[in-house]
Amino acid sequence: MENIPYKIYLTEDELPKAWYNLRSAMKTKPAPLLNPGTHEPMSAADLAPVFCDELIAQELDNDTPYFEIPKEIYDFYKMYRPSPLVRAYCLEKAMDTPAHIYYKFEGNNTSGSHKLNSAIAQAYYAKKQGLKGVTTETGAGQWGTALSMACSYFQLDCKVFMVKVSYEQKPFRREVMRVYGADVTPSPSETTNVGKKILEAHPGTTGSLGCAISEAVEVAVSNPGYRYVLGSVLNQVLLHQSVIGLETEAALKKYDIVPDIIIGCAGGGSNLGGLISPFMRDKIEGKLNARIVAVEPASCPSFTRGVYAYDFCDTGMVCPLAKMYTLGSNFIPAPNHAGGLRYHGMSPVLSQLYDDGLMEAVSVPQTEVFKAAEAFARVEGILPAPESSHAIKVAMDEAAKCRETGEAKNIVFGLTGTGYFDLVAYEKFHNGVMDDYIPTDAELQASFDGLPKF
Ligand SMILES: *Cc1c(COP(=O)(O)O)cnc(C)c1O
Predict the structure, then answer these.
(1) What gap in Å lies between CA 311 and CA 300, rounded to an integer?
(2) Per the CB 3.0–4.6 Å rule, which of 85, 217, 298, 325 could disulfide with 346?
(3) What is the pLDDT of residues 191-241, one digit of tens each?
(4) Cα 199 to middle of ligand 1, angstroms
(5) Whether residue 266 has its Cβ less than 6 Å from ligand 1
(6) Which CATH number is 323's domain given?
(7) Domain ends where: 193, 208, 228?
């Protein structure tokens, strides 16, 4: 019997004291955000009406390796961090694989996902700047829930635009947000100009993250004392999420474990970007030879079928342009059940790393993901979020390959959250009525045709 415990816990003192900025190690830096009018890089002054000042400084800084975690945020982190790194002994046994499987579990907080790591940071900087409140969008609702918790902790007003399909499918998430005092509006809505326009152009639309972002930005810039905050994609969010990777690195080091494969689901790229931060640095510096794999839904395949180009971050085209792997900001994905992975674009940091050949990507159909989720739940106990289950699926595929080759590879994956609010999806899976819609090349091309040209 090996002496690696089921759960590798860090002590409170071992919680990272600083976030790590992976951009500082990148040889090719991610492309800058561009002003949609002038096509010039966005300056701090350009971004100031939309984002909080200190978050802008973090967003634009490609060089500083470490940012100290302010005490107020650190104290909040202590309520639910460090999170455990779990050795999936039961899954290994059930699969009869020689692989060693580890997962970093981020579902141990009320919001149920990793998003709280950045929500608390963003709320803190808004409070520090003396703002009244923040606006945001939420897809499946995890980000809105996390932000509501963070805002109530710092007594900030929180206005959430929730993608309509999720608002209707996930009434319980909406109520959790209201418990924490947030104001929740289904998007697209009649409460904003951009919402009205989108509703005119697409009557009956179930919404998308891109639409909800446009509405949230409009409300932030037109109300004094408000700024907009975003739960993924941006450089600052990956910076805050580096706490996941730093803890994983510290836990693995305790037992001299060197990862061979690191896997994470990718919606906008924040959990994966955070998880891989220190490992990607080592890979860039030639000190680690691990494979790094992004997993995305076949219904929204930004990396695997998208193009690397400047695109709008939102449907209303009010946000800066970001260079990223994208399906086009007009792309409205089929209403699949991994709501947190339904974004048309991808983090500019991860996009550059992928373009540089430093990471891989695979896409997987929805029912395969739920099969893996259920197999995992039955042996490991945790009810995984559909988003997280994309990583489970590919981790299990890799472990199955090890069974064929007899290799005892160290597989590490991010288990980003729990699925208690996703039981409608599990119900559809059980009843055999879950669909696996995959966009056609023609549909994607129609969306690429709408990419900004310059
Ligand atoms: C939002 C979310 C994701 C996807 O977002 P990323 O920014 O790509 O990490 C994954 N898992 C869960 C549980 C989420 O809530």
Answers:
(1) 16
(2) 325
(3) 999 999 999 999 999 888 888 999 999 999 999 999 999 999 999 999 999
(4) 27
(5) yes
(6) 3.40.50.1100
(7) 228
What total number of domains does the chain contain?
2
What pLDDT, in 10s, does the model give residues 145-163? 999 999 999 999 999 999 9
Is the omega angle on the peptide bond into residue 188 within 30 degrees of 0, that is, cis? yes
Whether residues 416 and 280 share a domain: the answer is yes
Burial category of 355 from C-beta neighbours within 10 Å (exposed 0-12, middle 13-18, buried 19 and up): middle
- How far is the centre of ligand 1, averaged over its atoms, from the C-alpha of 268 (Å)? 7
d(CA 299, CA 436): 7
CA 37 to ligand 1 centroid distance, Å: 31
Question: 355 and 439 share a domain?
Answer: yes
Q: To test ligand 1's pocket by mutation, which of 105, 213, 232 has the most ligand atoms within 8 angstroms of CB?
A: 232
Ligand 1: which residue has its CA nearest to atom 4? Answer: 267
One domain, residues 369 and 316 = yes
**Nearest alpha carbon, ligand 1 atom 10:** 387
pTM: 0.97
- In 289-403 the beta strands, taken as DSSP E runs, fall at 291-297, 307-312, 321-326, 360-364
Q: How many residues are given for the chain?
A: 454
Q: Is 341 in the pocket of ligand 1 (CB under 6 A)?
A: yes
- Three-state secondary structure call for residue 41: strand
In a domain, 66, yes or no: no
184-193, 207-216, 329-338, 409-418 — which is least confidently predicted? Answer: 329-338
Closest-lying ligand 1 atom to the alpha carbon of residue 139: 1
| 282 shares its domain with 293 | yes
Determine if residue 204 is left, alpha or beta; phi over 0 gives left, psi from -120 to 50 gives alpha, anything else beta. left
Sign, CA dihedral 304-309-313-315, equals negative
In a domain, 1, yes or no: no
**168 and 264 part of one domain:** no
Average pLDDT over residues 48-74: 97
Ligand 1 pocket residue status of 240, Cβ below 6 Å: no
Closest ligand 1 atom to 274 CA: 9
Same domain? For 41 and 178 the reply is yes
Residue 288 and residue 168 in one domain: no
pLDDT at residue 1, rounded to an integer: 44
Q: Is residue 351, in this structure, part of any structural domain at all?
A: yes
Domain that holds residue 261: 7-15+76-112+236-448
Could you tell me if 182 and 271 lie in one domain? no
**Residue 400 belongs to a domain:** yes
Does the pLDDT of residue 187 top 50, yes or no?
yes
Structure tokens at 34: 């561009």
